[in-house]
Amino acid sequence: MAEIQEGGGGGKKGGKKRAKKQSTRIDMTPMVDLAFLLLTFFVLTATFSKPKSMELTFPAPPPPDQKPSEIKKGITFLLSQDDRIFYYEGQFRAADDDKGKKTTLSELNFSQSSLHKFLLDKNKEMQDRIRALDAKHKNNQLPDTTYKRMVKEVKADKESFTYLIKTDDKATYKNVVDVIDELNINVVGKYVMVDILKPELDLINEKLGIAAAPAANP
Length: 218
What we know:
This protein has 218 residues and is an alpha/beta fold. Among the domains are: 70-119 and 161-211, no CATH class; 124-160, no CATH class. It has six helices and nine strands; from the N terminus they run ββββαβββαααβαβα. The chain has helices at residues 29-45, 112-122, 124-138, 144-155, 173-185, 198-208; strands spanning 2-6, 12-13, 16-17, 22-26, 74-79, 85-89, 106-108, 162-167, 191-193. It has a five-stranded mixed sheet, with helices on one face. Strands 1-4 form a two-stranded antiparallel ribbon. A two-stranded antiparallel sheet has the order 2-3. Helix 5 links the parallel strand 8 and strand 9. Helix 3 runs antiparallel to helix 4. The protein is elongated, with a radius of gyration of 35 Å. The N and C termini lie far apart (93 Å).
């Protein structure tokens, strides 16, 4: 509030009446209260930036004397330069044997009609089961805890595909993030990052037209 204070000097001098002096004082207390109220409002309603992170799963290394188990329902993505994605299904085979033929690489890209459609087709059965559970949950036929548990069980089903993500030294971090984003969009529950094998790297180099490095002399 503003207050007007009157000063002295209203007497007569030399037969003339002098005007009274007036001064103005502004009370800033209401303005300070308003500022604190606004500050409190913005602090309580603001959303603070959260650290951006991505959850990755790395399998524990097997014991040295244990042979790696054969992958039956697995799809391996091999990421390389120029945003190229190579993949193969099942167990890797460096040569033909009695269990199967030599592994060959197919290729995908990051377009909607390539990687996204590939994952959509591979996980259609799992997604249909999750949609059915989601419909029951929305109709209040499943409580939250039961719904979350059943969705987790569907994702972890042994009949679902497990995706292995491997990169060579030419792949970019962005490519890894983009692949994981697509896996999450397609509600894939089982994917891991593992080290690339030398025979897999040789196949990638063959696709890229890069000559294999000569073997070191003993």
